[in-house]
Amino acid sequence: MSICLLIQPIHQSGIDVLEKAGLEVRQASAVTMDVVAKEIEPAVAAITRNAGLNRTAMEAAKNLHVLGNHGIGVDPVDVDHATEIGLPIIFTPYGNVESVAEHAVSQMLAITKRVREADRAVREGNYDYRYTGDFCELNGRTLAIIGFGRTGIRTAEIAKAGFSMKVKVYDPYIDASAMAERGMEKVDDLDALLAEADVVSLHLQLTPETRNLMTRERIFSMRKGSLLVNTARGALVDADALVEALESGHLRGAAMDVFDQEPLPLDHPYIKTDGLVMSPHIAGATEECLERTAFQTATQVVDVLEGRRPDNMVNPDVWERRRFA
Prior knowledge:
The chain is 36% helix and 15% strand. The chain is α/β, with parallel strands linked by helices.
C-alpha cells in the first residue's frame, strides 16, 4: 500500500480522503527535518503545514510524487529545489480566508477595547480600570490593508460593513478598479498610507521583497496612536522596532499571530512587551478552517497521484516534467 506521510497532523476530513484513495496514512514521529528525512523515504506523498520541507528531506524522499502544503504560506518549503527535481507542490490559498480575516478583526477589537487588560483588571479586583482605560471605537476609522489577496479583501469587507471603516489599500500588483468596485481606495505610496491610517493590517506572503517590510522607519512613520495587526508572516515586521514603538507609546497597540521563529522563544522581547496582543498562530485554526483546508489539501494530493492536474500548484511549470509522470 502506498504511503502518505503527515509531517504535522491534519483534520480527519483529509485523512478520510487519503484513505479512501487507498493510501496508508502515517504520522511523522517528530516535525524536525532530520527525523522527517529518516521517515519520508517510502512515502509517495507528504503533507506539511508550517514545518515545511527542506532540501535534505526532499533528497531522502526518493519515492515522493507530490508535496501537499496545508495552507497558503510556503516559505518553509524549499520550493526551488522541489521545482528543480520536478516535485509538484500543491497548496490551499482559499481554505483559511474567512478564519484569518475574522481573527484580524478580532485583534483590532482586542486592542481598541483593551480586552486583555480588562480581563486582567477583573482578575485583580481592579474595577477602577474602567475609569483609566483608554478605550475607543473602530467605527469610521481608516484601515490600511497591506496586500489585497483574498484574506486582505475579506478583512476589508468585514471592517467596512461591520464598522463603517474607510478602507485604503496598498498592493502594487492589483488594479485600482478592483478596489474601487468594493468601495475601497488604492494608495500607491506605502509610507503616505501608513502616516494616515488608524489601523494597519498585514496580508502579505513572505518573499525577499516583503521580508522586514515594516522597518523601524516605517513603524515610526505610522500615525501616533495607531494599531498594527499581523496575521500574515512574522518576518514582515522588525521586532525590535515594534517593541520600541509600543514601549515609547508611539503605537497604541499591536497584535501578532505569527512570528519569525515559532514557537516564540520565552526570552524574546515580545514576551514582556505590554501593549502587544499575541496568539500562537491560530488565525487559521478554527474547526471549520482545519476541516476545509485538510480536505482541499488531501483532494489535490490524490489528484496528482492519479494523474489529474490539481487546482492550485505552487510550481505549475513542473507539471509536464514532474517526476514519475
